[in-house]
Amino acid sequence: MNTKSSILALAAAIAASGVFAHGSEDHAAKPRKFDATKVEDTAFGREGDPAKATRTIRLDMADSMRFTPADITVKRGETVKIVASNKGQVLHEMVIGTPDELKKHAEMMRKFPEMEHAEPYMAHVKPGASGEVVWQFTKAGEFQFACLIPGHFEAGMVGKVTVK
What is the pTM of this model? Predict the structure, then answer.
């Protein structure tokens, strides 16, 4: 099999597999159950135990493609519950990550807009609803949160997390 055929076959398998499934809004409504044995470290922290959350941070998402507040500050090691409320008329999401990871994910979303995923650092929120992410920020630095629905990230729907 030549290289071009291999690449096409791999792309088709990924697209058909549902690994990246994103289009269904139903998965956002199911609460995530914390399982300490499945927690994975990332460059921007790890899933937090809801019982250890020290505070709740509320974010609003709007069809103006903005988060309010757009900047949040947390302490290194702190576990917070982020409640993202969709005040708009279209689906929005809040995804935490490094600027590079979010940019790459946004590019993938443009190519495969029906992707579906339910990682612990994301909340997909229907209009008028709220979603939650419980996250422990284990590393100091600046990270981001963004809406990666195609067109939203590009329109500037990005916020900053400063971890001190």
Answer: 0.79
Extended strands (E) in 6-121: 46-47, 55-62, 66-68, 71-74, 79-86, 92-97
Adjacent-strand bridge partners of 123: 94
Domains, the chain, with CATH or none: 22-163 (2.60.40.420)
Closest CA to 44 of 82, 17, 7, 9: 82
Over residues 52-90, the pLDDT tens digits come to: 999 999 999 999 999 999 999 999 999 999 999 999 999
Contact 139, 91 (CB under 8 A): no
